[in-house]
Specification:
The chain is of the alpha/beta class. It has 14 helices and five strands.
């Protein structure tokens, strides 16, 4: 999607195959980084060309207040902060740039695997139910979801949606890792800023865990789902509250 120079990491899940030979419908499921820098023309493109009808904001209030989602005629904004309160002390947002660059941030305090596990524990049940209800209610147009940089929370939501649609794990991981290409420029900027500070030796060498999308993070996510719910089917049933009819409806709406 090259129409959005001011929206980082924006792309569609369209074309991803499922185990039964179907494909995710083009232009129905969109993911991105935050939208606060989007131009008026880009916002109109989202609504008119791409037919976005609902935007799901996965950020915390701490992140939303200085950079709220824009209001677009005909588009509903739904706030679904996916990080449970017990996680807020671990990471307040995707990439704590301010803390990093003022040297108050300690990368050793961040366990990305644990953060991913928290996004699929029982405390997030209401959020997952809201996300899937939006998808089930969307009979026309597209749904877009985002966090700050479209990497972690956005990537987890994409992974769970694709799992519900029957995508193969390898294809889910491949889509998740595309983020590293889309955010490469932003990563270089942050690394250069950290290098320029030179106040904390080797800080830039230790930032990768927070800056990157890594397959082991999704591995930790699915390990937690298998451990706590017996697999994706159990997670969709017990946490997302989806029954067989709901799953059939999702596949009818979003597969071809």
């Amino acid at each position: 999607m090259h129409d959005f120079p001011n929206i980082l990491n924006i792309r569609s899940l369209g074309g991803i195959p499922t185990k039964d030979g179907s494909l995710v419908r083009a232009g129905k499921l969109l993911r991105s980084a935050e939208l606060s820098n989007a131009s008026p023309a880009e916002l109109q493109l989202l609504a008119r060309k791409y037919q976005v009808r609902t935007i799901i904001d996965l950020r915390t209030g701490f992140e939303r207040r200085p950079a709220p989602d824009p209001q677009i005629d005909g588009v509903e904004n739904v706030v679904v902060p996916l990080l449970p309160m017990k996680t807020i002390g671990v990471v307040r947002e995707d990439y704590n740039w301010t803390e990093m660059l003022t040297m108050r941030w300690n990368p050793d305090d961040y366990d990305m695997r644990r953060i991913y596990e928290h996004m699929v524990d029982e405390a997030t049940s209401d959020e997952w139910q809201t996300i899937f209800q939006v998808l089930l209610d969307n009979h026309e147009g597209a749904v877009l979801w985002h966090c700050t940089n479209g990497k972690d929370r956005t990537g987890v939501v994409a992974a769970i949606i694709l799992s519900a649609l029957g995508a193969r794990r390898a294809d889910i991981i491949e889509d998740y890792l595309v983020t590293n290409r889309y955010l490469a420029g932003r990563r270089r900027e942050i690394m250069a800023e950290a290098e320029a500070k030179r106040e904390k030796p080797a800080l830039s060498d230790r930032m990768g865990a927070l800056l990157d999308a890594r397959s082991e993070y999704l591995g930790a996510l699915f390990h937690a789902i298998n451990r706590d719910f017996g697999g994706v089917e159990g997670f969709l049933r017990d946490i997302c509250k989806l029954n067989a009819a709901d799953l059939r409806q999702l596949r009818y709406l979003y597969l071809q």
